[in-house]
Design a protein that fits this description.
mainly alpha
Length: 297
Amino acid sequence: MALRPLDNLPVTTPEKPKKPNKTAALNACDCRVNDENTVPSAVTDPSIEYIDSEHLKSLPDPATNIESLIERLDSKNWLEVCEALNDVRRFALYHASMLIPMLDKIMMLLVRSMKNPRSALCKTSIMASADIFTSFNHLLLSPSSPSTPQDEAFDHLLLQLLLKATQDKRFVCEEAEKALRAMALLAPPLPLFQKLEPYVAHKNLKVRAKAAVSVSDCTAKLGIEGIREFGLAKLLRISAEMLNDRLPEAREAARKIANSMYVAYIGEEEAKYESWENLCTSNLAPIPAQSMIRIVS
């Protein structure tokens, strides 16, 4: 019990300090509330600009830029790497001969940028690969059997493009699909066929589907001589297997392959449809053979 003071004044109890409002405190320190029902705002970097190939300009001093290109592509500063990737694109489009001695190193550094979790680096490196396909399509794949450092670099680049084409990030996926189309349309078809063959049986069904699309693009321009060189029966079996794939994209690619083969095959055969039917039944089991026959009937 509090004692009354001698001057007979009432006893006053000091007020307890109020607790600060949590929401106000969060707003004051500019902290973000983790609300799963709130749509996160898109974070964009205004310093990154994705430039279409037709809008890229040539380098004013390519000789100076080429000296530091590898070093800049290997930089720890991702903004510097993005700038260097755009320079790779300019070299490929306007000063292609200067890149040839270091093309294998350039492709391996592109692969590393594609693996980077930062989307700007990933997309810019994919755009650079498409420009490399445009300018170096006749040099990227050698038909000879001993593999070169450039062939090995291309193997890594092809795998990364197939993986990026299966990404959930739509703008990365679309850019990778564009690069794969450029590759299929511009690279020598027969060596590219041999590079793509393992991927149409890949354990990742999305990678299988993207590889099947590239194979169908190649088949359309291969011609009967190229098909025979690759292996007519082998390509028939690949197409028949993909007809039963789980993804509709792979099944549609298989139908396109079958139609391209049929058009190329009957162009040189006298028996026309009958010869195609005999070809299918002699190289495939009865059920797959009928599936392939029905596609073109």
